[in-house]
Amino acid sequence: MSLPVLNTFAGNPLDRAGDLRNDPSWIEAQATHPEALAMVLWEGQPLLEQGPEGPRLAWLSMGHARDLVKDRELFLGLWKEAPVFAIEYETPDDPTTGPVRGLGQFTGMRDAAAVLPGNEAAMAGTAKALFDWRRRHGFCSACGQKNGIANGGWKLICSADGTEHFPRVDPVTIMLPVYRGGAEPLCLLGRQAAWPAGRMSALAGFLEPGESIEEACAREIKEESGLTVTAVRYHSSQPWPFPSQLMIGLIAEVSDDQAAPDETELEEVRWLTRAEAADVIAGVHPTIKAPPPFAIAHTLIKAWVEGFEV
C-alpha cells in the first residue's frame, strides 16, 4: 500500500485534542502553560522570520502573544506536550510597524506556502481557515444574535438561543481530463482570463447538494469544456485555506478530444502530450506556465506525466 500524497497545507503535525478542548478550564491551562507558543497572523498573513534554512513561522510565547492581542486567539493543538496557539491582528496598519517590530514580516499565505516547511504551512493554513470562518460567522444564522467563541476557537455558540456553529469546509473537485483514443495520450488544461499571462491549470468546481464526487467531476468538465467523462480515478486531496476548501484531486478519462471552452469560466483550453505537459511542469514550455508547485493542480499534472492513469 502506497503512502498518501501530502499536498501543501496537509500533514498538520499537531494533536488537535478534539475531546479535551471542549473544557474551557483545560484550554486556559494550556494557554498559561510555560511552554505554550503562538503564531501570529494579520489579515490572513502569517508572521515569518528568517531561519538558518530559510523562512519559517515566527513563534511567540503565549504570554507575549496575549499581551499583544486580546480575544483573538485560537487553540491549534499539542506539539508533543507543548500547547500551540495562534493569534490574529485585526488592524488596518501593519503590526510590524509597531507591536511586533523586529520580529519578522507578514507574508501572504500563497507566498508563505511556497517557502515554508510543509508542517508549518499546514499549521498556518489551519489557523487562517479558522480565523476566516470566525470572522464571517460572528452572528447566528438562526436568529441573528452575536455568537460567542467556544471549544478553543473551533466552535461558535449563539448568545441568545444556544445554537452551535462549526467550521465549514467546501468540497471542490479539481480534475485533469485525459484522452487516450488518439495516437498518444493527451491531457487538457484550461485558462481563466484573470490568471497571470500564460497560466493554465486543471479544471475545477464546487460540489453541489445531492451530488457525488464523480458526478460533480463529470458535470464540471461538461460545463467547462463540453467533454463527456467515462471514468474517474482519485489521486489525492488538499486543504485549501482560501478561505476553506477541500480540493479533491482526480484524473478523469473523457470520450473524445473535441474540447471547447465555455468562455464563461474558461477562455481557453489546450490539449498537451505527456512531453508537452512535462515541459510545462519543468517551466520550459514556450507559452504555458504551470500552476504553482504548492497547488494540487501542479501535483495532478506531474502525476499524469509520471504515468498515473485512470
Automatic annotation (TrEMBL):
GO molecular function: metal ion binding; NADH pyrophosphatase activity
Catalytic activity as recorded in UniProt: a 5'-end NAD(+)-phospho-ribonucleoside in mRNA + H2O = a 5'-end phospho-adenosine-phospho-ribonucleoside in mRNA + beta-nicotinamide D-ribonucleotide + 2 H(+)
Nudix hydrolase domain span: 167-297
Keywords: Hydrolase, Magnesium, Metal-binding, NAD
Cofactor dependency: Mg(2+); Zn(2+)
One of the protein's GO biological processes: NADP+ catabolic process
Entry similarity comment: Belongs to the Nudix hydrolase family. NudC subfamily.
PANTHER family hit by this protein: NAD-CAPPED RNA HYDROLASE NUDT12, NUDIX HYDROLASE, NUDC SUBFAMILY
NCBIfam families to which the protein is assigned, alphabetical: PRK00241.1
The name this protein goes by in its record: NAD(+) diphosphatase
Species of the source: Brevundimonas goettingensis
This protein's encoding gene: nudC
